[in-house]
Every structure is written in structure tokens, then in C-alpha cells.
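Your task
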Amino acid sequence: MRNKDSYKDNSCLLQDDDFIASQLQPMQESNKYWEKKLEEGIVDPEDYDFSRCFIHSVQVRPEFISESEILDLWVNIEVNNKKNIQKKKKYFHILSVLLGSAAIFVFLFWITMIISNKKDKNYQSFFSAETVNKTITDVQLHLANNKTVPLTGENVKIAYNKENIAVNNSKIVLKDESPSDQKQTLHELVVPWGKRSMLTLSEGSKIWINAGTRVAYPVVFDNNKREIYVDGEVFLEVSPDKDRPFIVKTKKIDVEVLGTKFNVMAYEKDTIQNIVLVSGIVKIHNNNQKKVITLMPNEMYSFGNGLSKIQTVDVEGYISWKSGIYQYNSVSLGEIMKRLSHYYGCSIDCSSQVSQMKFSGKLDLKDTIEMILEGIAQIAPITYRYDNGVYVITNK
């Protein structure tokens, strides 16, 4: 019998007299010997099976096989071995690619879930918070470090840049104390009833914010999209950026644009909300509908109470508030009082007799609600009274 080291090269089985003899005249002792070699890994199982099958198939004694025939057999064995090795390499290559792809997928899924959970947390936190408190008299800027800055003035202007936050045309400069990861940093602007504000974001988009509105936004936007949260009414002039769509998220809808002008009225307490498009195109994703609604200029999308519709409107009547004017043309008194209720944060109740009266004109929103109601009462057959926190409008 050969020693152990001689079988490290498994190719010698067909040239091993002992192996050939054990196959031609098998004995219990020789069988156990070769089984042990297989168990110890000294003999390759594939080569063992191949050599064994070959010897039994030719049915001749090995001493009658010529050297050339042995050489041919040896070449065939080498070719088969190489094919097996290539198959194994290909298999392991495919397996490694699949495992690598799976690892990358799991990693990306994990990252996506982290980001998604982060954004879901922002969404839930914003819309679960209390709406604008009627006791607040000043515009409030809530920074990411839990610091709240009251901003005085009837129409506060705020502008962001890379270094700071300028308030009221840079008359006051607030150093931004945001954490280093600014993309995950949200600031919130709260505009009380009876006031307005204008916000310029870091990438140039402008937002006019109506009374009783909250807006949350990042200090620096993501590389692939720009996303803000709104509870109330805003008018936006979005800076064009084809690589980063601008998304306004309310509790019920998402409004997606690339660069355009539009108005969103989405007070959480209202049953009917609407989007009015001035220029460009917007896509509206309604959380209760699978389809995407596309608006064209001078169209308004209204939704609520299980209904939704698109209609052509005079946009000026819906956006003039940003200039401190409420302009209306042949609008019912009930609708006018609803808009005034939004702006001043008060309750106004119109009787059925006067709610359908239609008016045209302009109101200066810098006036008090009492001054406005008094002015309407002088030109229309109505009267009003303040009763237990509610302005009641009736026939004169």
C-alpha cells in the first residue's frame, strides 16, 4: 500500500496497482482501507467513483491497457476535473453575486426604513400637535433645539440662507443653532389668527402664510426632494428644480410640483379643503384615492365629506389674501363669512336668509373683524351681534 502523502494528488488511482486490484478482486480489508481514505479526505470522492466505474466498465485487467490508452484516460480525467472545477467556480461566483445583492438589498431596505420611520415620525408629530392656539398674538418660530422665538409685527418676513435666518429684512438676525445633520432638522413657523407671514426657504421658494397656520420645513432640503408640512392656508411660489420635486404634505393630501404658483387651503378643522393653481402644473395625491389628480392653471380641486371635484375659478379671489386684501366677485355671504372666520379665528354664524346673498368687492384684512362687519352692514340689509363668543349675522 502507498503511504498517505502519495494520495494527496488524487489523480493516481488508475495507476495504483493496489487500487486496481482492490476493484478487480474486492476484499473486506481492502474495501475498509479505501473507505478510510475517503473519510480522511485523502482520496477525492469524485475521482474515486470515476476510477472505480471505469475499471468495472472495461472488464479487462489493467496490465493489458497500453501506456497510450492510460495517457488518454489520464487526459480525460484531467478534462473532467477542470470542467468540475469551472462549474464549482461558476456556482460560487453566482452564489457570491446573489449573496452580495441580497446584502445590498437588505442594507438599502434598512436605510429606507430608517428614513421612512424618521419622516413618518415627523408627519405624525406635526399633525398630532395642537392647532394654532387663539391666545397666541405673535408669530412664533420654533427652532430645532426646542427654542421658541416670538416675532412681532403684522406681516413678519423670514428668510433662510446658509449662514443665518433674517427676520424683517435682516433687521434682526437669528443665528441658526441647528444640529449638524441639518437635513433631518425641522423648524416650525406658527402664524396666529389675524396675522400673516412670508417665508423664503433656503433654496429660494417663497411661502405666504395665512392666519391660523402652521408650517414645518427642513433647514436644508434633501438631495432628491423638497418636503414641507402644512396645517392651514399657504400660497407658494416654488423655485424650479427638475431634480427635486417640491411636496406640500397636509393631513389628507400631498401636492407635488417642480416649479409653480398655487394656493393650498387645508385647515385640519375644515371638512372641505382646496388647492387652487395659478401657473404651472401640480399633481395631487389624495390619501383616500389611488389615482393622481392633475391640475391646470385657473383650476381648483376641492375635496371633503367623501366628495372631490375640479372646477374653473377666478384665482384672484383665492390668493388676494397674501396682499392683505380679500377680493371676491359674486360670492355668497356665507362663503365670505367662512373666509373671514378663517382669517380672524372667530366663529361667525349666518342665518339661512342672508347666507345666500351674493356680493362683490374688497375687504382690508388689516381692519378688525368688527370694522369689517360694520362696513358690510352699512351696504347690505344685514345686522350682526356678538353672542357668547359667536358673531351672529341676520336680516336687518
In short: The two ends are 125 Å apart (CA to CA).
